[in-house]
Design goal:
405 residues, mainly alpha, Proton glutamate symport protein, 15 helices, 78% helix, 0% strand
Length: 405
Protein backbone atom coordinates (compact mmCIF):
# COMPACT_ATOMS: atom_id res chain seq x y z
CA UNK A 1 0.00 0.00 0.00
CA UNK A 2 2.79 2.40 0.98
CA UNK A 3 4.75 1.52 -2.18
CA UNK A 4 1.68 2.26 -4.29
CA UNK A 5 1.18 5.64 -2.63
CA UNK A 6 4.86 6.48 -3.04
CA UNK A 7 4.76 5.62 -6.76
CA UNK A 8 1.61 7.73 -7.14
CA UNK A 9 3.33 10.72 -5.54
CA UNK A 10 6.38 10.26 -7.75
CA UNK A 11 4.19 10.08 -10.85
CA UNK A 12 2.39 13.24 -9.74
CA UNK A 13 5.63 15.19 -9.38
CA UNK A 14 6.95 13.88 -12.71
CA UNK A 15 3.78 14.96 -14.51
CA UNK A 16 3.85 18.35 -12.75
CA UNK A 17 7.49 18.86 -13.75
CA UNK A 18 6.78 17.96 -17.36
CA UNK A 19 4.02 20.60 -17.45
CA UNK A 20 6.53 23.27 -16.39
CA UNK A 21 7.58 25.44 -19.33
CA UNK A 22 11.25 25.79 -18.19
CA UNK A 23 11.48 21.99 -17.88
CA UNK A 24 9.97 21.59 -21.35
CA UNK A 25 12.48 24.07 -22.73
CA UNK A 26 15.39 22.25 -21.12
CA UNK A 27 14.12 18.96 -22.55
CA UNK A 28 13.85 20.57 -25.99
CA UNK A 29 17.45 21.74 -25.77
CA UNK A 30 18.68 18.33 -24.58
CA UNK A 31 16.81 16.52 -27.35
CA UNK A 32 18.30 18.77 -30.04
CA UNK A 33 21.82 18.59 -28.56
CA UNK A 34 21.69 14.80 -28.28
CA UNK A 35 19.73 13.89 -31.41
CA UNK A 36 19.39 17.00 -33.59
CA UNK A 37 22.16 16.03 -36.00
CA UNK A 38 20.36 12.71 -36.68
CA UNK A 39 17.03 14.30 -37.66
CA UNK A 40 16.06 13.55 -41.27
CA UNK A 41 16.12 16.65 -43.45
CA UNK A 42 12.28 16.80 -43.87
CA UNK A 43 11.81 16.54 -40.09
CA UNK A 44 14.30 19.37 -39.48
CA UNK A 45 12.57 21.52 -42.11
CA UNK A 46 9.17 20.81 -40.54
CA UNK A 47 10.41 21.85 -37.07
CA UNK A 48 11.90 25.05 -38.48
CA UNK A 49 8.72 25.80 -40.45
CA UNK A 50 6.57 25.36 -37.31
CA UNK A 51 8.75 27.80 -35.37
CA UNK A 52 8.40 30.38 -38.13
CA UNK A 53 4.65 29.76 -38.22
CA UNK A 54 4.37 30.50 -34.47
CA UNK A 55 6.38 33.69 -34.92
CA UNK A 56 4.30 34.85 -37.91
CA UNK A 57 1.03 34.19 -36.05
CA UNK A 58 2.42 36.15 -33.11
CA UNK A 59 3.17 39.13 -35.35
CA UNK A 60 -0.40 39.04 -36.70
CA UNK A 61 -1.80 39.15 -33.13
CA UNK A 62 0.66 41.63 -31.59
CA UNK A 63 -0.75 44.97 -32.85
CA UNK A 64 -4.21 44.23 -31.43
CA UNK A 65 -2.70 42.90 -28.21
CA UNK A 66 -0.43 45.92 -27.72
CA UNK A 67 -3.28 48.38 -28.42
CA UNK A 68 -5.63 46.69 -25.93
CA UNK A 69 -2.95 46.32 -23.23
CA UNK A 70 -1.78 49.92 -23.27
CA UNK A 71 -5.33 51.33 -23.60
CA UNK A 72 -6.62 49.28 -20.66
CA UNK A 73 -3.62 50.31 -18.54
CA UNK A 74 -4.24 54.01 -19.14
CA UNK A 75 -8.00 53.67 -18.55
CA UNK A 76 -7.33 51.72 -15.35
CA UNK A 77 -5.35 54.63 -13.92
CA UNK A 78 -8.43 56.87 -14.15
CA UNK A 79 -9.42 56.22 -10.55
CA UNK A 80 -6.20 57.83 -9.25
CA UNK A 81 -5.16 61.46 -9.20
CA UNK A 82 -4.03 62.53 -12.67
CA UNK A 83 -0.85 64.19 -11.43
CA UNK A 84 0.16 61.17 -9.37
CA UNK A 85 -0.39 58.88 -12.35
CA UNK A 86 1.61 61.16 -14.66
CA UNK A 87 4.52 61.41 -12.23
CA UNK A 88 4.45 57.64 -11.65
CA UNK A 89 4.43 56.81 -15.37
CA UNK A 90 7.32 59.20 -16.03
CA UNK A 91 9.22 57.78 -13.06
CA UNK A 92 8.74 54.22 -14.31
CA UNK A 93 9.85 55.20 -17.79
CA UNK A 94 12.97 56.92 -16.49
CA UNK A 95 13.89 54.00 -14.22
CA UNK A 96 13.51 51.51 -17.08
CA UNK A 97 15.41 53.74 -19.52
CA UNK A 98 18.22 54.32 -17.01
CA UNK A 99 18.65 50.58 -16.48
CA UNK A 100 18.80 50.01 -20.27
CA UNK A 101 21.47 52.71 -20.64
CA UNK A 102 23.38 51.16 -17.75
CA UNK A 103 23.37 47.81 -19.58
CA UNK A 104 24.50 49.55 -22.78
CA UNK A 105 27.39 51.23 -20.98
CA UNK A 106 28.54 47.95 -19.41
CA UNK A 107 28.10 46.05 -22.69
CA UNK A 108 30.05 48.56 -24.78
CA UNK A 109 32.80 48.78 -22.14
CA UNK A 110 33.13 44.98 -21.96
CA UNK A 111 32.64 44.12 -25.64
CA UNK A 112 36.29 43.11 -26.06
CA UNK A 113 35.78 40.36 -23.47
CA UNK A 114 32.58 38.98 -25.00
CA UNK A 115 33.39 35.53 -26.47
CA UNK A 116 32.81 35.15 -30.20
CA UNK A 117 31.49 31.89 -31.65
CA UNK A 118 33.79 30.04 -34.00
CA UNK A 119 30.88 28.40 -35.81
CA UNK A 120 29.69 30.15 -38.95
CA UNK A 121 25.91 30.47 -39.25
CA UNK A 122 26.09 30.92 -43.02
CA UNK A 123 27.38 27.46 -43.88
CA UNK A 124 26.53 25.49 -47.01
CA UNK A 125 23.77 23.55 -45.28
CA UNK A 126 20.73 25.70 -44.65
CA UNK A 127 17.19 24.78 -43.70
CA UNK A 128 14.52 26.33 -45.89
CA UNK A 129 10.95 26.41 -44.48
CA UNK A 130 8.18 24.68 -46.40
CA UNK A 131 6.18 27.93 -46.32
CA UNK A 132 5.88 31.30 -44.51
CA UNK A 133 2.65 33.21 -43.90
CA UNK A 134 4.51 36.34 -42.75
CA UNK A 135 4.81 37.45 -46.36
CA UNK A 136 1.08 38.22 -46.34
CA UNK A 137 1.26 40.65 -43.41
CA UNK A 138 1.02 44.36 -44.26
CA UNK A 139 3.76 46.65 -43.02
CA UNK A 140 1.08 48.91 -41.49
CA UNK A 141 -0.03 46.06 -39.21
CA UNK A 142 2.79 46.56 -36.68
CA UNK A 143 3.22 46.72 -32.91
CA UNK A 144 4.48 50.32 -33.23
CA UNK A 145 1.15 51.38 -34.72
CA UNK A 146 -0.52 49.35 -31.97
CA UNK A 147 1.25 51.52 -29.39
CA UNK A 148 -0.04 54.70 -31.07
CA UNK A 149 -3.63 53.43 -31.32
CA UNK A 150 -3.59 52.08 -27.77
CA UNK A 151 -2.28 55.38 -26.40
CA UNK A 152 -4.96 57.38 -28.19
CA UNK A 153 -7.74 55.05 -27.01
CA UNK A 154 -6.34 55.02 -23.47
CA UNK A 155 -6.16 58.80 -23.21
CA UNK A 156 -9.68 59.10 -24.64
CA UNK A 157 -11.06 56.52 -22.21
CA UNK A 158 -9.27 58.07 -19.23
CA UNK A 159 -10.53 61.60 -19.89
CA UNK A 160 -14.01 60.93 -21.27
CA UNK A 161 -16.14 58.33 -19.51
CA UNK A 162 -17.37 56.01 -22.25
CA UNK A 163 -18.72 52.75 -20.83
CA UNK A 164 -18.95 51.09 -24.22
CA UNK A 165 -15.32 51.91 -25.10
CA UNK A 166 -14.15 50.66 -21.71
CA UNK A 167 -16.02 47.39 -22.17
CA UNK A 168 -14.54 46.79 -25.63
CA UNK A 169 -10.98 47.62 -24.52
CA UNK A 170 -11.06 45.46 -21.40
CA UNK A 171 -12.74 42.58 -23.24
CA UNK A 172 -10.05 42.75 -25.94
CA UNK A 173 -7.35 42.85 -23.26
CA UNK A 174 -8.79 39.77 -21.54
CA UNK A 175 -8.99 37.85 -24.82
CA UNK A 176 -5.44 38.81 -25.76
CA UNK A 177 -4.22 37.86 -22.30
CA UNK A 178 -5.75 34.41 -22.75
CA UNK A 179 -4.18 34.06 -26.19
CA UNK A 180 -0.74 34.79 -24.75
CA UNK A 181 -1.04 32.80 -21.52
CA UNK A 182 -2.83 29.77 -22.97
CA UNK A 183 -1.40 29.63 -26.48
CA UNK A 184 1.84 31.47 -27.18
CA UNK A 185 3.47 30.96 -23.78
CA UNK A 186 2.81 27.21 -24.03
CA UNK A 187 4.30 27.18 -27.52
CA UNK A 188 7.63 28.66 -26.40
CA UNK A 189 9.40 25.24 -26.20
CA UNK A 190 8.23 24.40 -29.75
CA UNK A 191 9.11 27.91 -30.91
CA UNK A 192 12.66 27.56 -29.62
CA UNK A 193 12.95 23.89 -30.69
CA UNK A 194 12.70 24.62 -34.41
CA UNK A 195 15.32 27.36 -34.29
CA UNK A 196 17.58 25.15 -32.18
CA UNK A 197 17.33 22.50 -34.91
CA UNK A 198 18.30 25.17 -37.43
CA UNK A 199 21.30 26.20 -35.32
CA UNK A 200 22.28 22.55 -34.76
CA UNK A 201 22.46 21.98 -38.49
CA UNK A 202 24.39 25.24 -38.99
CA UNK A 203 26.99 24.22 -36.37
CA UNK A 204 26.22 27.12 -34.04
CA UNK A 205 24.42 25.33 -31.20
CA UNK A 206 27.50 23.67 -29.72
CA UNK A 207 29.27 27.01 -29.47
CA UNK A 208 26.22 28.55 -27.79
CA UNK A 209 26.06 25.80 -25.17
CA UNK A 210 29.78 26.14 -24.43
CA UNK A 211 30.05 29.93 -24.48
CA UNK A 212 26.83 31.26 -22.94
CA UNK A 213 27.31 29.74 -19.48
CA UNK A 214 29.87 32.45 -18.75
CA UNK A 215 27.55 35.08 -20.26
CA UNK A 216 24.71 34.06 -17.91
CA UNK A 217 27.04 34.36 -14.91
CA UNK A 218 28.21 37.79 -16.09
CA UNK A 219 24.66 39.07 -16.68
CA UNK A 220 23.76 37.98 -13.15
CA UNK A 221 26.65 40.00 -11.73
CA UNK A 222 25.68 43.06 -13.80
CA UNK A 223 22.08 42.87 -12.52
CA UNK A 224 23.11 42.42 -8.88
CA UNK A 225 25.48 45.41 -9.07
CA UNK A 226 22.60 47.64 -10.21
CA UNK A 227 20.35 46.28 -7.45
CA UNK A 228 22.98 47.22 -4.86
CA UNK A 229 23.10 50.74 -6.35
CA UNK A 230 19.31 51.13 -6.12
CA UNK A 231 19.26 49.99 -2.48
CA UNK A 232 22.11 52.39 -1.71
CA UNK A 233 20.16 55.30 -3.25
CA UNK A 234 16.98 54.27 -1.42
CA UNK A 235 18.87 54.29 1.89
CA UNK A 236 20.66 57.56 1.00
CA UNK A 237 23.94 55.65 1.26
CA UNK A 238 23.34 55.01 4.96
CA UNK A 239 24.62 51.55 5.92
CA UNK A 240 22.21 50.93 8.79
CA UNK A 241 19.22 52.14 6.77
CA UNK A 242 20.25 49.92 3.85
CA UNK A 243 20.40 46.89 6.14
CA UNK A 244 16.93 47.74 7.50
CA UNK A 245 15.49 47.96 3.96
CA UNK A 246 17.10 44.68 2.93
CA UNK A 247 15.79 42.96 6.06
CA UNK A 248 12.23 43.84 5.06
CA UNK A 249 12.42 43.06 1.34
CA UNK A 250 14.73 40.05 1.04
CA UNK A 251 11.90 37.50 1.63
CA UNK A 252 10.12 38.85 -1.46
CA UNK A 253 13.24 38.11 -3.49
CA UNK A 254 13.23 34.50 -2.30
CA UNK A 255 9.51 34.08 -3.00
CA UNK A 256 9.75 35.56 -6.49
CA UNK A 257 12.85 33.47 -7.27
CA UNK A 258 10.99 30.25 -6.49
CA UNK A 259 7.61 31.20 -8.00
CA UNK A 260 9.11 33.12 -10.96
CA UNK A 261 6.09 35.42 -10.76
CA UNK A 262 6.01 39.08 -9.74
CA UNK A 263 2.22 38.94 -9.61
CA UNK A 264 2.20 35.98 -7.23
CA UNK A 265 4.68 37.81 -4.98
CA UNK A 266 2.73 41.09 -5.02
CA UNK A 267 0.96 40.71 -1.62
CA UNK A 268 4.32 40.11 0.06
CA UNK A 269 5.92 42.98 -1.87
CA UNK A 270 3.18 45.34 -0.65
CA UNK A 271 3.66 44.17 2.93
CA UNK A 272 7.43 44.70 2.71
CA UNK A 273 7.00 48.14 1.10
CA UNK A 274 4.62 49.23 3.87
CA UNK A 275 7.41 48.64 6.39
CA UNK A 276 9.82 50.82 4.41
CA UNK A 277 7.51 53.71 3.41
CA UNK A 278 6.60 56.71 5.53
CA UNK A 279 2.99 56.36 4.35
CA UNK A 280 2.27 52.61 4.53
CA UNK A 281 -1.05 52.88 2.67
CA UNK A 282 0.83 54.29 -0.33
CA UNK A 283 2.24 50.80 -1.06
CA UNK A 284 -1.18 49.35 -1.96
CA UNK A 285 -1.41 51.74 -4.91
CA UNK A 286 2.25 51.95 -5.84
CA UNK A 287 3.31 48.29 -6.02
CA UNK A 288 0.45 47.04 -8.26
CA UNK A 289 1.07 49.97 -10.62
CA UNK A 290 4.78 49.19 -10.93
CA UNK A 291 4.93 45.41 -10.73
CA UNK A 292 4.49 44.63 -14.43
CA UNK A 293 5.73 47.92 -15.91
CA UNK A 294 8.83 48.88 -13.94
CA UNK A 295 11.01 45.84 -14.65
CA UNK A 296 14.59 46.82 -13.98
CA UNK A 297 16.06 43.32 -13.98
CA UNK A 298 14.28 42.51 -17.22
CA UNK A 299 15.52 45.72 -18.88
CA UNK A 300 19.15 45.17 -17.87
CA UNK A 301 19.22 41.49 -18.84
CA UNK A 302 17.58 41.95 -22.23
CA UNK A 303 19.52 45.08 -23.18
CA UNK A 304 22.82 43.44 -22.30
CA UNK A 305 21.90 40.17 -24.02
CA UNK A 306 21.03 42.15 -27.17
CA UNK A 307 24.61 43.43 -27.31
CA UNK A 308 26.05 39.98 -26.60
CA UNK A 309 23.98 38.36 -29.34
CA UNK A 310 24.75 41.13 -31.84
CA UNK A 311 28.47 40.62 -31.22
CA UNK A 312 28.25 36.84 -31.60
CA UNK A 313 26.24 36.97 -34.81
CA UNK A 314 28.70 39.36 -36.43
CA UNK A 315 26.39 42.39 -36.28
CA UNK A 316 27.84 45.86 -35.58
CA UNK A 317 27.39 47.31 -32.13
CA UNK A 318 24.76 50.10 -32.20
CA UNK A 319 26.04 53.65 -31.82
CA UNK A 320 24.53 55.97 -29.24
CA UNK A 321 22.00 57.42 -31.72
CA UNK A 322 20.75 54.01 -32.89
CA UNK A 323 20.59 52.79 -29.30
CA UNK A 324 18.65 55.90 -28.23
CA UNK A 325 15.97 55.18 -30.85
CA UNK A 326 15.84 51.56 -29.73
CA UNK A 327 15.72 52.75 -26.10
CA UNK A 328 12.68 54.95 -26.77
CA UNK A 329 10.61 52.13 -28.29
CA UNK A 330 11.90 49.58 -25.79
CA UNK A 331 10.85 51.80 -22.87
CA UNK A 332 7.43 52.52 -24.39
CA UNK A 333 6.89 48.81 -24.96
CA UNK A 334 7.32 48.12 -21.23
CA UNK A 335 3.97 49.87 -20.66
CA UNK A 336 2.28 47.37 -22.99
CA UNK A 337 3.47 44.29 -21.08
CA UNK A 338 1.39 44.85 -17.94
CA UNK A 339 -1.26 42.32 -18.98
CA UNK A 340 1.05 39.79 -20.64
CA UNK A 341 1.65 37.22 -17.92
CA UNK A 342 4.72 35.21 -18.91
CA UNK A 343 4.74 36.39 -22.50
CA UNK A 344 6.16 39.91 -22.27
CA UNK A 345 9.28 38.89 -24.20
CA UNK A 346 7.10 38.44 -27.31
CA UNK A 347 6.22 42.15 -27.28
CA UNK A 348 9.91 42.94 -27.70
CA UNK A 349 10.60 40.65 -30.66
CA UNK A 350 9.57 43.12 -33.42
CA UNK A 351 11.57 45.89 -31.70
CA UNK A 352 14.71 43.74 -31.63
CA UNK A 353 14.25 42.87 -35.28
CA UNK A 354 13.37 46.35 -36.55
CA UNK A 355 15.80 48.50 -34.57
CA UNK A 356 18.69 46.08 -33.91
CA UNK A 357 18.46 43.86 -36.98
CA UNK A 358 17.75 40.61 -35.12
CA UNK A 359 17.17 37.48 -37.20
CA UNK A 360 14.74 34.64 -36.37
CA UNK A 361 17.55 32.66 -34.75
CA UNK A 362 18.67 35.63 -32.64
CA UNK A 363 15.15 36.19 -31.28
CA UNK A 364 14.81 32.49 -30.47
CA UNK A 365 18.12 32.65 -28.61
CA UNK A 366 17.19 35.67 -26.51
CA UNK A 367 13.86 34.02 -25.62
CA UNK A 368 15.68 30.87 -24.50
CA UNK A 369 18.13 32.89 -22.39
CA UNK A 370 15.21 34.80 -20.85
CA UNK A 371 13.67 31.53 -19.70
CA UNK A 372 16.98 30.38 -18.20
CA UNK A 373 17.46 33.70 -16.40
CA UNK A 374 13.79 34.12 -15.43
CA UNK A 375 14.17 33.35 -11.67
CA UNK A 376 17.01 35.89 -11.36
CA UNK A 377 15.26 38.50 -13.51
CA UNK A 378 11.94 38.18 -11.65
CA UNK A 379 13.48 38.38 -8.19
CA UNK A 380 15.52 41.41 -9.26
CA UNK A 381 12.39 43.11 -10.61
CA UNK A 382 10.64 42.60 -7.27
CA UNK A 383 13.58 43.72 -5.12
CA UNK A 384 14.25 46.78 -7.29
CA UNK A 385 10.57 47.77 -7.12
CA UNK A 386 10.79 47.53 -3.34
CA UNK A 387 13.76 49.90 -3.32
CA UNK A 388 12.38 52.25 -5.99
CA UNK A 389 9.09 52.54 -4.07
CA UNK A 390 11.06 54.38 -1.36
CA UNK A 391 12.67 56.66 -3.94
CA UNK A 392 9.32 57.41 -5.59
CA UNK A 393 7.60 58.22 -2.28
CA UNK A 394 10.41 60.63 -1.49
CA UNK A 395 9.99 62.26 -4.92
CA UNK A 396 6.20 62.50 -4.54
CA UNK A 397 6.49 64.14 -1.12
CA UNK A 398 8.94 66.66 -2.59
CA UNK A 399 6.55 67.49 -5.49
CA UNK A 400 3.58 67.95 -3.14
CA UNK A 401 5.61 70.24 -0.91
CA UNK A 402 6.65 72.34 -3.90
CA UNK A 403 3.05 72.57 -5.15
CA UNK A 404 1.89 73.58 -1.66
CA UNK A 405 4.31 76.52 -1.69
Amino acid sequence: MNNTMQKTRQSFWVVKALKSMPVQLVLSILIVVACGSYFPHPVARAAYTFSLLIKDLLLFVLPLAVASFIASTLIGFRQNALLLVLVLLVFEGISNATSVMYAYGVGISCQEWIPVFKANLMQDFQLVPFFQIGDYRSGLWSSVNGVVIGTLLGVLGATVRMAQLDAVVFRARDYMGLVFSRVFVRLIPFYVFGFLVFMQHSGLLEEIVNSYLSIIAFVTCVILAYLVLILAVASRFNGQECVRIIRHIWPTGVISFTTMSSAATMPFTIEAAEKNLKTPGFAAMLIPATTNIQQVGDCIANAFLCLVILKNFGKPMPDILSWSIFLMWFTLARYTTAAVLGGAIFIMVPIYEHYLGFTHEMTALIIALNVVLDPIITSTNVLCNGGLAIVFERLWIYIKEKLAC
